[in-house]
Amino acid sequence: MDKRPHIKPYLYAMLAGFGAISLSILLFFLIYRFRGLGDAVAKLAGILMPFIYGGAIAYALKPVCNFLERNLKKIVSPRFHRVVGPFAVTGSLLFGLLLVYALLLMIIPQLYNSILTLSATLPARLDALVNWLSGQYFADHTMIQNFLIEVYDALAESFGGWINNTLIPYMQDIVSGVGQSVWNAVIALKNLLIGLFVAAYLLASRRRFAQQAKILLYGVLPSRWSDLILEELAYADRMFGGFINGKLLDSAIIGLLCYVVCILVNFPSAMLVSAIVGITNVIPFFGPFIGAVPATLLILIEDPIKAIWFVLFILILQQLDGNVIGPKILGNTTGLSSFWVLFSILLFGGLWGFVGMIVGVPLFAVIYDVLRKLIIHGLRANGQEAMLIAYHDAFGDSEDPGSAPKAPQ
């Protein structure tokens, strides 16, 4: 008999976490470590980029298309149901295009004006900020005043040298390479336009493709494995759809609330600051901190006192988001602990940048769920279900293995 029963409850969490980490690292090691494989993947992705765009657009608009189709069938005669599908696809695509157009129409002019005004007045505002600090807080401290002036002069000189030695030559390089930039933009636009047609076809034939994939799956694999794969695919769909769509809605609400308060309190660069706060809020865990720093600096340059009030407002806003708005929209979508959320953001963010920080949490949650089910199945097959019960009794939380469905024997 094992004389260390207290170790057993920790074994499940250790194996699931270690397995998920190992599988993630192994997958991307194979892709990025071997140059030939990485080049082949990059080339294939470049060729299939219109289908990647189309698949992403279709997946994002699928809930809208399903909603339109379901409600149109309720209000039209059954003899016209055959035209409901095309109308729903067209309506969902128009909805997506109009939404993007409205967002760009609202944000881009405001952002452009804010950036233009800031760039034109930045030197004078920095001078005013240094003078305000020196006269307001350090009037009796000559040494600190001299230090601030020396630091400011050094920064101004470095900034001027950076403009003359780095920025201007870089802009000249951009102008000289404008042909390649225009060509890249044309390629991206072409891929996006083809992607819209691909998205329309995918939305119109989504049920047919799903049934074809199901037939292929059951025709190649045994039924019990096909059931498991379909169950995991459904879980991945719920995970990605629920998390990403919920996070986008949550960030849109946070950005809107920030803009309203900035207008009411008369914070400088309200649209630019709100756009930064809303966009960076899409990133789990780190987003609020990433967005608060540049937004606070923008306000600090114009009005240091308002910058302090803005920091306090951001703290209140993020508490509201973390404790009220976020949980209401997202709930505990992923079932991951804070440690695994942090790990997945760092891992996939390091691999894929901004996109990786967004999709890393649901992707790691899917990998974690697969490993969890495999471990549970192995423990049950080896007659070690007592370990699951012990874990349930010790750690009855969101990662509770007792809530996992039984794997087929």
TrEMBL record:
InterPro entries: AI-2E-like (IPR002549). Keywords: Cell membrane, Membrane, Transmembrane, Transmembrane helix, Transport. One of its GO terms (biological process) is transmembrane transport. The keyword Metal-binding does not apply. GO terms for cellular component: plasma membrane. It is a multi-pass membrane protein. The chain crosses the membrane at residues 12-34, 40-62, 83-108, 182-204, 248-267, 273-300, 307-326, 338-371. It is found in: Cell membrane. It comes from the Bacteria. Signal peptide: none annotated. Pfam families: AI-2E_transport (PF01594). Belongs to the autoinducer-2 exporter (AI-2E) (TC 2.A.86) family. This is AI-2E family transporter. It comes from Candidatus Faecalibacterium intestinavium.
